[in-house]
Each structure stands twice: as C-alpha cells, then as structure tokens.
C-alpha cells in the first residue's frame, strides 16, 4: 500500500489545493493552519506544473518539508497537469519520482470528444506505471460539456478504474454527476475541492470531512 492510499484510508485529508507558488492566493503555511483548525490530519497538495516549470520544484519540495515540520501535519506532494492530444501530460518527467500523486486535468483540452477520451485513456495507462497514484481530477469538466459525451465519459471512467486510477469527487464543480458517481467503488474515490485559497477550504471543509466520514462508514460496514 503506497503512502497516498494509506492517507485516504485514514481519512480527514484535504486533497487538491493550489498555493501561491502558482495561481493560488494562500501560502501552504496558511493552508496548514486552517486545515488543522478544521480537523484535517493531512494535506495533499496538487500544485500546477508545466513542462517548462515556472518555479524551482526542488525549492518547492524544501518549502513543503519546512511547513510539515513547522505545523506538525502530514503533507503529500502532488501535481496537476493538463492532458495533451498525444496522451502525455504537460509535466517535466524529472519531477515525477518526487511526487506521491499525479492529477490529470482535461479542462484546457482542445479537440473533439473522441480525441479527448482517447488521450485520457492513453495517459491513464501510461502514467499509472510511473507514479505511485493517479487521479482524474474534476472529471468531466470538459468532456461533459456536451450531452452526447455521456457515453464517452462512462467509457473513459471505466478505463481509468480498470487500470487502477482514482476518480476525484470534486465538490467545487459537483463532478462526477450522480449517475456516474454511484458506479465508482468507494476505495477509488478521492474527495477534492480544487481550492485556490483558504477561504475555499473554510467553505467546503466541513462537507469534505462529512463525505470522507460517510465513505469510511460504508467501507467498514463491508468488512
């Protein structure tokens, strides 16, 4: 069991935040303080990256470790990268050995529904072998903008689950929609918010903790 899976099983985790190292408004230190105050036991950062990274990733890792020690809270390092038409994601390959989770995002994809679905499936298959954990973040944010995409979304979701990827339940965008959500095993769900400030953590924090607790109870009842 990898560190990401252990963190999910323990519950009370804050997943998918962006700091002021990229387009976030709050520092990691501010997130740590608010997370502890609200009852979170761990934070899973999902910082934006591009192949030409705009910041020094090693400096970012050092900052994360400093905040972990200062606030005495578990912090996992992840990155969010956009899917490209060829099935790769816009990420420097050199940083992947240093992350616990890779979030694949579709919202900036330029292309047809079938092309997006195919690219996502290629990426799930490829990166699942490279990173400890893989999450499809805010799933359907682009793919579900057209009604005829429901079948493509379902096929893409099933493929992701078959290769061992996780599906984010994004509370900010209410994704994936309920008809699809009920088809996902609870152990493959990750509760996230895509927060860009501590105000969004304050807004969604209780709902996150409540949903994580609800999922934990469902899992324990099946043991």
From TrEMBL:
InterPro entries: PHP_dom, PHP_phosphatase, Pol/His_phosphatase_N, Pol/histidinol_Pase-like
Record-level Gene Ontology MF annotations: phosphoric ester hydrolase activity; zinc ion binding
GO cellular component, one term: cytosol
Residue ranges of every copy of the Polymerase/histidinol phosphatase N-terminal domain listed in the record: 13-85
Protein name listed in UniProt: PHP domain-containing protein
Organism: candidate division WOR-3 bacterium
